[in-house]
Amino acid sequence: MITAKKFxxxxxxxxIDETTKKEIxxxxxxxxAIPGYQVPYSSPxxxxxxxxxTGGLHASLSLxxxxxVFKIIDQGSDASVNACNLRDFVKRMTGCKTTFDTGAAxxxxxxxxxxxxxxxxxxxxxxxVPQPEPxxxxxxxxxxxxxxxxxxxxxxxxxxxxxxxxxxxxxxxAAGYPVRVHGRYIMTPSPIPRWxxxxxxxxxxxxxxxxxxxxxxxxxxxxxxxxxxEFEDVKFCVEEFRGIVCAASGGDRxxxxxxxxxxxxxxxxxxxxxSSTKSAPATVRCNGFxxxxxxxxxxxxxxxxx
Amino acid sequence: xxRETVYDEIFDxxxxxxxxxxxxxxxxxxxxxxxxxxxxPEGLTRAAAYVGFALLNADVAAHVAGxxxxxxxxxxxxxxxxxxxxxxxDFIFLPGEGEVTxxxxxxxxxxxxxxxxxxxxxAVNHIGKSSSTGGVQLTxxxxxxxxxxxxxxxxxxxxxxxxLKAKNAEFPxxxxxxxxxxxxxxxxxxxxxxxxxxxx
Amino acid sequence: MGYVxxxxxxxxxxxxxxxxxxxxxxxRTTPIxxxxxxxxxxxxxxxxxxxxxxxxxxxxxxxLKQNEGDVFESAFMxxxxxxxxxxxxxxxxxxxxxxxxxxxxxxxxxxIPGGQILGPTRDYSQRLLDGELAEETLGxxxxxxxxxxxxxxxxxxxxxxxIGKVIDLxxxxxxxxxxxxxxxxxxxxxxxxAIKFPAPRSAALQMLARAETGGLMALAYSAQRGFGxxxxxxxxxxxxxxxxxxxxxxxxxxxxxxxxxxxxxMISKIKVQKKDPVPYLSLGYGLCFGQNETKxxxxxxxxxxxxxxxxxxxxxxxxxxxxxxGIESYGFTNHLKLPHYVTFQSSLSNxxxxxxxxxxxxxxxxxxxxxxxxxxxxx
Lengths: 306, 200, 379
Fold this sequence. Notes:
The complex is a heterotrimer of chains A (306), B (200) and C (379).
Chain A: H1 2-7, H2 18-33, E1 39-40, H3 54-63, E2 69-74, H4 81-94, E3 97-98, E4 107-111, E5 124-128, H5 142-150, H6 155-168, E6 179-181, E7 185-187, E8 206-211, E9 216-220, E10 226-228, E11 256-260, E12 266-270
Parallel strand pairs in A: 2-3, 2-4, 4-5, 5-8
Antiparallel strand pairs in A: 1-9, 6-7, 6-10, 8-9, 11-12
Chain B: H1 11-25, E1 31-32, H2 46-55, E2 61-64, H3 69-79, E3 82-83, E4 91-95, H4 101-105, E5 119-123, E6 126-128, E7 136-141, E8 149-154, H5 158-167, E9 176-180, E10 185-189, E11 194-199
Parallel strand pairs in B: 2-3, 2-4, 4-5, 5-9
Antiparallel strand pairs in B: 1-10, 6-8, 7-8, 7-11, 9-10
Chain C: H1 9-25, H2 34-40, H3 42-52, H4 57-66, H5 71-84, E1 100-105, H6 138-150, H7 166-172, H8 201-210, H9 213-224, E2 233-247, E3 253-269, E4 281-289, H10 293-306, H11 317-323, H12 326-334, H13 341-361, H14 368-378
Antiparallel strand pairs in C: 1-2, 2-3, 3-4
Helix pairs in contact in C: 2-4, 3-4, 3-5, 4-5, 8-10, 9-10
């Protein structure tokens, strides 16, 4: 069966070859040392499509070891089809333990949400990033945005936010709200809702952001200031869920998903199923927010399927 | 020159990398490397070798300051790294009691690509949470530190700390340091850390 | 309900994979052989080998079969497979002057040393459907091949020399010169380090060689039509096999095999600087795996365009190289199928508040979220 042998393949632990892992690891260390700065990396192809999580996988598979417990979510959901596919891939390539329980995980890969539960110093969260360049909407050329970051020349971004306010009465940037990290680099937190942005600042855990297609890594270390861009008189505020409660749990202090059961019946449920009103962080009010989120000990509750 | 056979390129590298990453993410937090029976030559401690084995390969250049020929040969044999002068190297290994020259010459990166600044691995005697006879008290503040971290280090000349501080005067340019001890502990001082020191 | 709300994500995927396999074989036709795809879809193989950046005809045939002929998925799969392969060597520079030429033409001159060799091309065929192919049998194929080979007069075959290049004639006359003598000639490998802009020419050519043929075609066409001024002539287009050499552990140079490539040397006039009034010609270069002339020609046009300055899309390195990258563009355009409801909800929140603000301003309090919430609670 010569033909069959030719196409057979065994895979390295974590799929990625050790040379590439080393490169990613070196770049991660530099990204931690320069908070919010986008480090270019080789970003080799994966058996998952570009734009579907290759960057997240690069980071996770370079970090992961036999002792890790891996959790992966998409739009906050462990059961989302793409999260299932990526989880299966990581499990196949590492034999690692996986979990749906945020508190039990040591390594969390996420697309576009940070879990409501406060992550600890034992946890690393890897964000999948479609567009790592926060200035891309105001400047289309990479060589120019790189120069802007080098010189901390962010005028174009500020003008764009101001113009949004003038037109609509508020800064209309929704998910992926631009932030300033350690007082220096403007960074995109990936398209997480504004709800999750205050949770990035002065957090106990390490945040890794990886954009596979665009080939960039950036990090927010623990205990680092992350400040959403705002004006003195026009402040950052999170999404409003005024008068809305979760149809499943009755809670009202978490990011909500809007669900259409039929053309007329609409309801809301909490996006992060492992959170509840008890363990939710302090309510963040519109038109003002406390930049210091007091970290709480996460409740290690058994994971209950709703 | 010894070609190590006890080192697992997959799992030891991953484990040691996670140790370094945790240290770099939390400057001043003292971590201990999982020990391995490496036979390191003159000029390279085991902990420094762990860093080298975990992070060096043919794509980067190393430099061992001081009496470094044997150590450079060892690193090259085991990682295929290039060997360069201090001003060209991506990783510089030096003793905590040695000269500052290598640090002064280390590259700090350029404004568009500050990550090309070097990583400096300094071999000290001991790192601990309580003061010992002699040594230096380091007070650390900045990203990765909730309020303030205090560590006590012996076998480290304060001239090296001053040289590091000078190199890191213009963020984001700078170099990132790792202190590795004889008993295989490590702390990291990324360029964002504000370091003040007192000799004891 | 939706494919997210249910906990059956894994089941859904398993079922989808099974279903796709069912679609592939449900007609119960004779399974197609790898060898058949390789032999009879040669040009398709060549296209996806180039875009997959892996010269492996059998593997290309396999992925085409696996993906029911989807060319984007197939090129993608080859790339992903390539990423798992160990890098043992970098080859020595291919010497295309050593090519065993199967086809070779020049539009720049009527007759050229070595001759215009039309070779295997459909360029001058009439694109009329051939119904007889529906009745083709192994017997009819064998008869044709036997007849064809029978017509060859072995006594009149000469040893095929390697053929010199047309551009050498122009260079000798001093008419063909480097476009930018100060250009960055560093050789980089974009698969090992992310491309940085402005990119050295080696990086640009490497990305063009891996680029999606249709993307290159669209942008090269735009250059021809006035979005950027590249008026190029085919100095030479050649297709054939070249030897591949590597250095072994002892430093000896060894031939490890031959690959078929298509090479295009596109000639155009350089915009003259005011200081230097003597005009000259320069080269736009294209090289890709297999027989893919469209790609090689478009590579040459875009190589020239990107080095000519100006603000047309085809003249921007970033625009051309980022957006002709087939695997990345395929992934990202299709990624819109992923759930985006959290990001969308975030926008909805903003939008509803903005509408409410506007309506409040107009004195209309019956609109917006507050009113909707009121309606729901009272319902």
